[in-house]
Amino acid sequence: MSVLLMRLSGPMQSWGTQSRFTIRDTNLEPSKSGVIGLLCAAIGKPRRETPNDGHPPLSSLAALRMGVRVDREGVRQVDFHTAGGGTWTGKPYGVVKADASSGDTVLSSRYYLSGAVFLVGLEGDPDFLLRLRSALVNPVWQLSLGRKSFLPDGPIYLPEPTPWNGGLSGGSLDACLTTYPSLLRLESEDEPESVTARGAIRLILETTGSERGEVRMDQPLSFEPRAFGVRYVTTKWLPASEAS
Question: I need a surface site. Which of 1, 4, 147, 172 has the fewest CB within 10 A?
Answer without folding.
Answer: 1
